[in-house]
Amino acid sequence: MENKIILSVDKSMKLLEILLKFRHPVSLKTLSEHSGYPKSTVYGLLFTMMQHDVVHQYADGRYGLGIRLYELGTSVSGSWDISAAVHPALEKLSEMTGAGTFITYFDGKNVISFDRCVGTGGLQVIPEVGMRMALHATAQGKLFLSTLNRSRVLHLLRESGMAAFTPHTITDTDQMFAELDAIRVRGYAVENGEYRRGLMGAAAPIREIDGKIEYALGFVGLFRRITSDEFLSAVEMMLNAAKDLS
Amino acid sequence: MENKIILSVDKSMKLLEILLKFRHPVSLKTLSEHSGYPKSTVYGLLFTMMQHDVVHQYADGRYGLGIRLYELGTSVSGSWDISAAVHPALEKLSEMTGAGTFITYFDGKNVISFDRCVGTGGLQVIPEVGMRMALHATAQGKLFLSTLNRSRVLHLLRESGMAAFTPHTITDTDQMFAELDAIRVRGYAVENGEYRRGLMGAAAPIREIDGKIEYALGFVGLFRRITSDEFLSAVEMMLNAAKDLS
DNA sequence: AAGTATTATTCGATAATATCGAATAAAGAA
DNA sequence: TTCTTTATTCGATATTATCGAATAATACTT
Question: Model's pTM, two decimal places?
């Protein structure tokens, strides 16, 4: 299982992940310390990636992610068919509910936000574009999990862990399976302060022509409670918008 | 010079480039043929990259670029400070000139379009977002080249080549240096059917606070000739917009 | 300016491992 | 079913990535 992995490539990817986390150029030394690989090894990997503009070295010697990644990244998002068509719906929903709204894509493993619209309310905690979201602690994440079979869910949860972001975060698998059942019945997922204290939201699936669910529409905001009228009417509007997009 | 390159990493990057070119999922066999590496080698590399979601395998077995590249890519574009501030200026310039307008970023080696606005004219040939542009055959490319020293220019031109896209493309280095001198004097670059027959455009630098030039504003369209009044007034408007953004 | 500290880069011997062809398994078509 | 095509596994081999240590380059002090 682990022996067909090509180590030098694996190390390169790990370096990219470290660079992603830092979000700003870092020195070779830092990279070496954080990865655990010797400086000279890191240097060779970085040098190779630099030749392809996947890594960029700044004038002061530090390293950062390179422009080629932008090119590759836009190619990936370009393959998502709905991107343009969907933005007006986001704005409309944002306006009607006052909450922040966003669209996520699920590749079977990761939930990524790729379009968003801030609401009219004060504090806005919408995920940044391009950010991966927690599978077990967000409405979107749970929604996508609810489309998978039990063993797949277990596998993903084991892989990503079930960190307790707040006291409300679901950290028990049995509890999670009950929640996923409820989502399947209800047709949408709810997030009740599981990721950030007091932050509530919901997510509804956008179905492809063939019934597949790769995208979801959601909102988040600071509601009183998930049984409040404003929250429930926001859910209603979200469901309608999602149905229109499907 | 070439011996510190780590081959397996280098091959991985080449595979990503091939996947980028195809812009749709391809089979292992195709990848093997296009890269020239044996199937089993390609498989190992792809498998490793898959573990990091840099490559994705579809249900039918074919491979494509993975979602992690989107994450990495947005991180890169997020470091470009002006992105949001600049879009209104693009729209305004597009409206006033009727031409397509766009913003490019230069990392010292590649010119990449990262925001654009279509014009009112009929046929629109604006570069897609995320696309690399020819250094020697576009206004943007030549503009950035004009900020570099002679040896650097030679190096870049040798690296990327000077393909003759049209009869007007500059394919001679001496001619190019004369052109770059003219751009330095003029303060902006002009493209006169050098990339696509009949397509004309111009590009002006957007200067950072410290005087550095990383971004450029440009337009392209189907003008009569680059000495026509409409073209010259478009240039004027572009220069003003670029100055405002600087 | 010279000296010191820090970090980037090069080098070379060695063991580790990526590579490749060939064999097998799996999926699709007829 | 059988035949084709394509993906995946395997194992012997030579190639090459690796690592520590040496050197170069840069930044910081005095």
Answer: 0.89
